[in-house]
Design goal:
This protein has about 350 residues and is an alpha/beta fold. Helices cover about 50% and strands about 15% of the residues. The protein is built from 17 helices and eleven strands. A hairpin with a 3-residue loop joins strand 7 (about 165) and strand 8 (about 170-175).
């Protein structure tokens, strides 16, 4: 069977998602957004979202795979629809994102076996979503929730394990979320992957090395995106971390919902010489959040440099991948051909999602 290139198929998916919610023959749909730090569930006939926290990245980073998380995952897939009052008649599908892509990369056969176990125990088919599909879901959700307030070509979503810079026609994604990037920076600058790694204080030479490393990691941005890109940040590491920190450090009002690149660079220079304790005192934040602040700032600055964007728009909204997944007919088709999907996942990896469910058995 010949498969079309995954990028072309995902672009077609993005176009379909941005049109309207798919009309489904089923009475309702339930979708599970399985991120690096937990699961969120929603239904096509309900405005309610239920959620549970599960740390998927920590066991993967320690080389233990997802085995220990399976009981909690299965319990959540059973319980979250009940908590939301979602009908038992609704058809269900889940999508795993950055952590699940990492697990696939580490051992495809093992992950496919675990997914079969999850489906048998919970009745939920969980797919491993490609980066481009995640970007399409993010842009779709932002358009739905922000409407006319979304005035930029792309939305920036930084999760724990990956980031998406998603537009209607062009997107860029990388396994470079908040926790992954912090770990990479600690390894490069402090020669450790310890979760308690402190990057501050950081010297000028170390800042230059961090920026060079990030430029290398973001080298694909220019090829993936058009020349002119304007971004709206929609995720908490920026909206509740980087942006308010810059405003406080520079003594600016927090009412313009705009982060200037020059201001961000100036703020980085201000906290570079501070210890973690001094940063928490200066900004009035907990050490837990301060630990990621410098690496988050550098990540956002690097993205703005890579895209040429001088001003980052801020939209403090709680977006999930649920609306896009609910609208994704392909995902629900795969739920009906799940054994075939798992076979292709073993052979084709992420490309399995973009293949045609209708061709199963041919």
């Amino acid at each position: 069977m010949r498969l079309a290139p995954i990028r072309r198929l995902i672009v077609a998916l993005a176009g379909a998602l941005l049109g309207a919610l798919a009309s489904a023959a089923e009475p309702c749909r339930v979708a599970f957004d399985i991120g690096s730090s937990g699961i969120r569930a929603g239904a096509s006939n309900s405005a309610l979202t239920t959620r549970v926290d599960i740390d998927y990245l920590a066991p993967l980073a320690a080389g233990r795979g997802l085995e220990a998380t399976l009981p909690t995952t299965i319990a959540a897939l059973r319980d979250l629809p009940q908590q939301g009052g979602f009908s038992a008649e609704c058809v269900r599908v889940g999508a795993g994102f950055s952590a699940w892509r990492l697990a696939l990369q580490q051992d495809a056969e093992k992950l496919a076996t675990q997914l079969a176990e999850i489906e048998a125990a919970s009745g939920v088919a969980v797919l491993v979503a490609p980066q481009q599909a995640e970007g399409a879901y993010g842009h779709f959700a932002a358009q739905q929730q922000l409407g006319e307030r979304l005035r930029t070509s792309h939305v920036l979503d930084i999760g724990g394990g990956s980031l998406q810079l998603a537009g209607e026609r062009h997107s860029f994604g990388a396994p470079l979320g908040q926790k992954i990037w912090h770990r990479e920076l600690c390894q490069a600058i402090r020669q450790t992957t310890s979760p308690t790694c402190a990057l501050q204080p950081i010297s000028g030479d170390e800042l230059a090395a961090a920026r060079a490393l990030l430029a290398e990691r973001l080298h694909g941005v220019s090829a993936a995106l058009p020349e002119s890109v304007a971004m709206t940040a929609i995720s908490r590491p920026v909206t509740q971390g980087v942006w308010p920190a810059v405003e406080r450090l520079l003594g600016k009002a927090e009412d313009n919902k705009l982060l200037e690149r020059t201001a961000l660079t100036a703020a980085i220079e201000q906290i570079a010489d501070l210890t973690l304790a001094q940063t928490t005192t200066r900004l009035g934040i907990s050490e837990k959040y301060a630990a990621y602040l410098l690496s988050d700032m550098l990540l956002v600055e690097g993205l703005m440099r890579a895209t040429g964007d001088q001003d980052l728009h801020i939209a403090d909204v709680d977006l999930t991948n649920i609306p896009g997944l609910l609208a994704d007919d392909r995902a629900f088709d795969w739920a009906r051909h799940y054994g075939c999907y798992l076979d292709r996942l073993r052979r084709l990896g992420l490309t399995a999602y973009a293949s045609d469910p209708a061709s199963c058995g041919q």
